């Protein structure tokens, strides 16, 4: 694998996955009444990041975050700092799942399916942990007034964002593990077009 610049094909693929993530956001995803949710769009974002690398993943996440703010933000847009933190930044860092793109591609090349699944989980963990860290911070400073009476705002934000993050990780990791088992080519880019970025 070479350390080439981001390709136009990678950017187009990333934009398509961001649009797919945005479309999936319209499927109901709230669980209970406290703000816990599964964001279905995590799946295509983690897939493109683990396929193309973290730079394409971050760009794709930023696109999704901006689209989500513009199309669905509404009353969730409180002030410029909160908007930037919870949309382009939080969605963008989901693309850090692509930090495992090179070892994942190598495991698939060597037909090491179990190792590939481990990398898929690690990448998903890095991405979702990063995303929900920013939602957690925003929850403390901007959404604390929604905490039920008697709840500490730090614990409330950790509860809501922690459960949302774990649900998102499990959903993405299970679906991607199934996909890599039945269609490993979804995680590979042909050698002519491979532009996975090294750190």
From TrEMBL:
InterPro entries: Thia_Transptr_ThiT (IPR012651). One of its GO terms (molecular function) is thiamine transmembrane transporter activity. The chain crosses the membrane at residues 7-25, 31-49, 56-75, 87-105, 117-143, 163-187. GO terms for cellular component: plasma membrane. Keywords: Membrane, Transmembrane, Transmembrane helix. Gene3D superfamilies: 1.10.1760.20. NCBIfam families: ECF_ThiT_YuaJ. This is Proton-coupled thiamine transporter.
């Amino acid at each position: 694998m070479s350390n080439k610049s981001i390709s136009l094909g990678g950017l187009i693929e990333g934009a398509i996955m961001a649009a797919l993530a945005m479309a999936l956001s319209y499927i109901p995803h709230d669980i209970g009444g406290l703000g816990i949710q599964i964001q279905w769009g995590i799946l295509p974002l983690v897939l493109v990041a683990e396929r193309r690398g973290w730079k394409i993943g971050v760009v794709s996440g930023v696109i999704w975050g901006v689209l989500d703010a513009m199309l669905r933000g509404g009353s969730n847009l409180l002030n410029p700092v909160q908007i930037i933190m919870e949309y382009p930044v939080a969605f963008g860092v989901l693309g850090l799942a692509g930090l495992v793109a090179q070892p994942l591609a190598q495991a698939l090349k060597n037909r090491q399916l179990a190792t590939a699944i481990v990398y898929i989980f690690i990448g998903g963990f890095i991405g979702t942990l990063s995303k929900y860290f920013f939602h957690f911070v925003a929850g403390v400073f901007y959404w604390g007034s929604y905490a039920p009476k008697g709840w500490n705002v730090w614990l409330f934000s950790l509860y809501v964002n922690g459960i949302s993050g774990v649900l998102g990780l499990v959903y993405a990791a299970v679906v991607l593990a199934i996909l890599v088992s039945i269609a490993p080519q979804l995680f590979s880019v042909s050698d002519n077009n491979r532009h996975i970025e090294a750190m």
